[in-house]
Write a structure and sequence with these properties.
five-stranded antiparallel β-sheet; alpha+beta; 3 domains; Heat Shock Protein 90; Beta-Lactamase; about 525 residues
C-alpha cells in the first residue's frame, strides 16, 4: 500500500505543478515575442543592406552605364558581408541584373505587393526556399531623378531554437525566482493550514466529520447548535422530530422555524440549563444547554433535548395515586380519632352524647359532600375534592368550594388533566395555609369561553414579588427544599399539564395566594359535558 503525501507535500507538489505550467506559458510567450522581435530586426537589417547598396554612387553609375559585371560583384560583396540569403539587383523593367543564382539572371523579378517601383522603399515577408523570410527593396535613382531599378535583399528568420536560446537567460531567472517564491509560499501555507487544522491531515479530518455525523444522527437525544445570532448551526434528526422543524433548518433562526416562544427563550437563554422541563407541541422536553467558546471567544451554544412526555404521564398517574393514598390515610386517621371518641363516650356511659357526636360529624360531612355534588358534576374531580376535605381537616385547614363554582362532567382526558391541576394546587394551598393564623383554602371551578377555569385561593403568606412566573419552574419553591429535592415539583407539573393543552397557569397575591389555571377543551368534549349537565 503506497503512503499518501502529507498536506504539506500535497501543497508543495501542487505548487510545483502550477509553477511548471506557468513557466511553460511564459516560455511560449517569451519565445514568440523573441521571434517576433528577431523578425522585425531582420527586416530592418535587410532594408539597411538594400538601401546602402541602392544609394551607393557606384551602383547608380553602374546601372546608368549598364556595367552589369560591377553590379554582380557589388551584390555578392553586399550579400556576403551582411550574411544575407539573397541580394538581387534588377532594372526598372524588373529584369534581374545581378544575383547569386545564375538561373535567375535575365529573368523578370516578381515584386509582389512591393511599392519599390513607385519610388518608395519596402519591407515585408517573402518566401525563401519555401519558408517565409524577411525581405526589403530599395529603389536606385539616377542623377536626374529617374528610377533606374531596385535592390532586393532577403534574410532568413531565426528558428524557434534560436529564439529559445536567446530567451534562455531570462527563463532561467524566472524559473529560479518562481521556484523560490513558490516553494517558500507552499511551505508557509502548509504550516498555516496545519496549525488551523490542529495537525490533522485531510483524511483524518474527513474521518472525523463522518464519525461526527454518524454519532450526531444516531443518538436518541436531540442536539441543536446555535450561533451568537440565534441561527441554527447544527441539528440532528431527533431534534428535527422533537421541534417539528423542516429538514433545511441550518442557517435559519428559531423564529423562522416556528419554534414556540417558551422553547425559543430556553434555547436562546444565556444561562447554563440543567434538566429544564419545557412544554412544546404537546410534548414535555427536558433541556440541557451549555454555552460554547473557541479560543476563549464565545461562539454560541449547544442544547440537548429529551422527550419526557411518557415520564410525565407516569408521574401524573403516580401523583394521582399519591393523592388517593394520602387521602385514605387522612380519612383512616380521622375515622380512628372519631371511633376512639365514640368508644370513649360509650365507656363513660354518655350514649346520648355519642349519638349527638355521630350526628354532628355526619351532618358536617354530608353538608360538604352536598355542596361538592351540586357544584361539580364530574365524578372524578368531585371524589378528589371530598377526599381532599379529609386531608385538610387533618391539617386543621378549612376547605371551601367557591359559591359560583359550576363544573359539568368532562371527557376522560380533560377530567384527568383537571384532577391533576386541582390536586396539586390544593396541596400547595393547604401547605401554605397550614402555617397561617386563619387556615382556609377556597376552590373555584367553572367553564368560561370553552376553557375549564380552576381558581385556588388560600390564606397563606402569598407568592413573593417577582416570582409569579419563576415559581412554576421545576425545583423552584418559596419554602426550604428537602433532602430529596421534593420541593418545586407540583406547580411545575401543573404548568406542564396546562401548557401542553395550550392553556396557562398564573399566580398572584391578594390576601394570600391566588392560582388561576386555564385548560382549553375541544368542542366535542364541552358539548358532551354541557349535555350531561
Amino acid at each position: 500500500m503506497t503512503r499518501r503525501l502529507s498536506l504539506a507535500g500535497q501543497l508543495l507538489a501542487l505548487q510545483v505543478v502550477i509553477i511548471c505550467v506557468v513557466l511553460v506559458g511564459v516560455t511560449a510567450v517569451t519565445v514568440a515575442q523573441s521571434t517576433r522581435r528577431a523578425q522585425e530586426v531582420e527586416g530592418r537589417r535587410a532594408l539597411v543592406v538594400a538601401e546602402t547598396l541602392a544609394n551607393a554612387q557606384a551602383t547608380r553609375e553602374a546601372m546608368a552605364a549598364g556595367a552589369v559585371r560591377y553590379l554582380r560583384v557589388a551584390a555578392e560583396v553586399a550579400r556576403s558581408n551582411s550574411d544575407s540569403a539573397s541580394v538581387v539587383v534588377a532594372g526598372a523593367d524588373r529584369t534581374v541584373l545581378a544575383t547569386a543564382d545564375p538561373e535567375e539572371l535575365g529573368a523578370r523579378f516578381d515584386v509582389g505587393d512591393s511599392t519599390v517601383l513607385t519610388g518608395r522603399s519596402w519591407t515585408g515577408e517573402r518566401p525563401l526556399d519555401g519558408d517565409p523570410a524577411a525581405g526589403a527593396m530599395a529603389p536606385v535613382y539616377a542623377d536626374d531623378g529617374r528610377i533606374l531599378g531596385f535592390v532586393s535583399v532577403q534574410r532568413p528568420y531565426p528558428s524557434i531554437m534560436d529564439g529559445l536560446a536567446s530567451a534562455a537567460p531570462n527563463l532561467l531567472t524566472y524559473l529560479g525566482v518562481a521556484s523560490v517564491i513558490g516553494i517558500g509560499g507552499s511551505l508557509l501555507v502548509a504550516r498555516r493550514v496545519k496549525r488551523q487544522t490542529l495537525g490533522l491531515e485531510p483524511p483524518e479530518i474527513a474521518g472525523l466529520v463522518e464519525h461526527r455525523d454518524a454519532m450526531l444522527h444516531g443518538i436518541r437525544e436531540g442536539v441543536v447548535g446555535l450561533d451568537l445570532q440565534g441561527r441554527v448551526t447544527l441539528i440532528n434528526d431527533e431534534a428535527i422530530r422533537l421541534l417539528g422543524t423542516p429538514g433545511n433548518a441550518l442557517g435559519r433562526t428559531l423564529t423562522d422555524l416556528g419554534v414556540g416562544e417558551e422553547l425559543r427563550d430556553a434555547l436562546l437563554s444565556s444561562d447554563v440549563a440543567r434538566d429544564r422541563a419545557v412544554a412544546s407541541g404537546g410534548r414535555v422536553l427536558v433541556l440541557n444547554r451549555l454555552p460554547i467558546a473557541s479560543r476563549g471567544e464565545p461562539i454560541g451554544s449547544v442544547t440537548t433535548l429529551r422527550d419526557r412526555t411518557e415520564l410525565l404521564e407516569l408521574r401524573r398517574e403516580l401523583d394521582l395515586t399519591r393523592h388517593v393514598t394520602d387521602t385514605l390515610r387522612a380519612q383512616a386517621h380521622e375515622f380512628d380519632n372519631r371511633l376512639h371518641t365514640i368508644a370513649g363516650l360509650i365507656e363513660l356511659g354518655e350514649a346520648d352524647e355519642a349519638v349527638r357526636f355521630v350526628h354532628r360529624v355526619s351532618s358536617s360531612r354530608s353538608e360538604f359532600s352536598q355542596v361538592v355534588a351540586e357544584a361539580v358534576r364530574d365524578p372524578s374531580i368531585a371524589a378528589l375534592l371530598i377526599a381532599k376535605a379529609s386531608q385538610a381537616a387533618e391539617l386543621g385547614v378549612d376547605l371551601r368550594i367557591a359559591p359560583d363554582s359550576a363544573l359539568p362532567a368532562l371527557g376522560d382526558g380533560l377530567s384527568t388533566d383537571v384532577a391533576t391541576v386541582v390536586g396539586n394546587l390544593i396541596d400547595n394551598a393547604m401547605d401554605a395555609a397550614s402555617s397561617a393564623p386563619q387556615r382556609w383554602v377556597e376552590v373555584g371551578l367553572g367553564v368560561v369561553d370553552g376553557e375549564v377555569d380552576v381558581v385556588v385561593r388560600d390564606s397563606g403568606p402569598g407568592v413573593p414579588a417577582g416570582m409569579e412566573r419563576e415559581i412554576f419552574r421545576r425545583g423552584v419553591s418559596t419554602k426550604g427544599g428537602t433532602a430529596s429535592g421534593e420541593r418545586g415539583i407540583g406547580l411545575s407539573l401543573v404548568h406542564l399539564v396546562c401548557t401542553r393543552r395550550g392553556g396557562d397557569v398564573t399566580a398572584t397575591s391578594v390576601g394570600g395566594s391566588v392560582f388561576t389555571a386555564r385548560l382549553p377543551a375541544d368542542d366535542e368534549t364541552l358539548d358532551g359535558a354541557l349535555v350531561d349537565a
